């Protein structure tokens, strides 16, 4: 039982990080109706910016306070992501207002390849380190109940707490703020939103900036755990099944979908993997999503689309 709980907790930790990346997809889709394939590239670009700023700032200024250097690096990377949001709106989305969804989808694919290449040109292509002070050593819980206790990574625990706090803040932002309601209105109908005075360009800059912030936090956490490398953009694509399972328009769905797939991946890999040669963790999420789509095409918490004629 102790080993089962240990695996389950590990899955929950991974699931929270998947949810964090999935939030970027959901945020942009809710506000613009665009499925943003560039979210993985944004995670990588933001992590690269923070890692390199954390290296450059002490070298340029002589700053020897690691905490302050990380704070300044995070702020600098956030400025970069806001500027990126503004450029994307000006040069791409602003030119494609009211175009077909497939046109916008292809535009995000173009943004993906641009960010991958531009990030490599601007920041280099080595493996970089982000050290934000999260403890690496494990700890043991429930030693009184289970022999040897349950092994939990402190780093995973801190990362899950950060992800949970951000998810909660974004849920409140969308549900209870004027800007959040404006974002939802824009997603429902661009022209109608414009007709009642909602500035479409400003809303898109805001939502891409928020998605950039989410990408930066996700990149910072994954970079701290695995190092900042170009596989991060591929790793972020593991959040795709989470988005589809939870529903493209649901923030709570992104959270619950991430937890379901995180737990399912870990449990299936540990308990079923040895019987079939392993590798279940790679494809588990996609198979679950395919099965769910057969029954509920809009995902578990997505809005059902009804066309009346």
DSSP summary, beta strand count: 2
The whole-number mean of residue pLDDT values reads 81
Global Rg: 20 Å
| Number of separate helices | 13
Number of individual domains? 1
Major pleated sheet: 2 strands, antiparallel
Calculate the terminal CA-CA distance, rounded to whole Å: 55 Å
Low-confidence stretches: none
Q: How would you explain this protein's 3D organization?
A:
This protein has 309 residues and is mostly helical. It has one domain. The chain is 72% helix and 3% strand. The protein contains 13 helices and 2 strands, in the order ααααββααααααααα. Strands 1-2 form a two-stranded antiparallel ribbon. α1 packs across α6. It starts with a helix and ends in a 14-residue tail after the last helix. The mean pLDDT is 81.
């Amino acid at each position: 039982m102790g080993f089962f709980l240990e695996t389950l907790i590990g899955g929950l930790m991974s699931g929270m990080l998947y949810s964090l990346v999935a939030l970027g997809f959901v945020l942009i889709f809710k506000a613009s109706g665009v499925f943003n394939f560039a979210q993985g590239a944004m995670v990588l670009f933001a992590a690269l910016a923070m890692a390199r700023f954390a290296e450059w700032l002490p070298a340029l200024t002589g700053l020897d306070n690691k905490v302050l250097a990380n704070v300044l690096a995070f702020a600098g990377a956030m400025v970069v992501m806001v500027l990126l949001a503004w450029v994307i709106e000006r040069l791409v989305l602003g030119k494609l207002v009211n175009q077909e969804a497939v046109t916008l989808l292809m535009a995000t694919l173009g943004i993906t390849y641009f960010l991958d290449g531009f990030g490599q040109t601007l920041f280099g292509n080595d493996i970089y380190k982000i050290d934000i002070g999260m403890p690496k050593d494990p700890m043991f819980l429930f030693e009184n109940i289970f022999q040897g206790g349950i092994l939990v990574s402190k780093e995973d625990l801190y990362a899950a707490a950060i992800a949970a706090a951000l998810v909660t803040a974004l849920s409140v932002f969308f549900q209870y703020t004027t800007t959040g309601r404006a974002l939802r209105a824009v997603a429902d109908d661009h022209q109608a939103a414009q007709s009642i005075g909602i500035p479409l360009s400003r809303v898109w800059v805001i939502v891409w900036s928020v998605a950039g912030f989410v990408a930066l936090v996700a990149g910072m956490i994954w970079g701290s755990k695995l190092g900042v490398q170009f596989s991060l953009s591929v790793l972020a694509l593991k959040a795709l099944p989470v988005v589809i399972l939870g529903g493209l328009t649901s923030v709570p769905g992104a959270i619950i979908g991430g937890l379901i797939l995180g737990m399912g991946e870990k449990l299936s890999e540990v308990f079923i993997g040895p019987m079939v040669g392993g590798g279940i963790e790679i494809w588990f999420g996609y198979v679950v999503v395919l099965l769910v789509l057969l029954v509920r095409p809009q995902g578990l918490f997505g809005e059902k689309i009804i066309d009346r004629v």
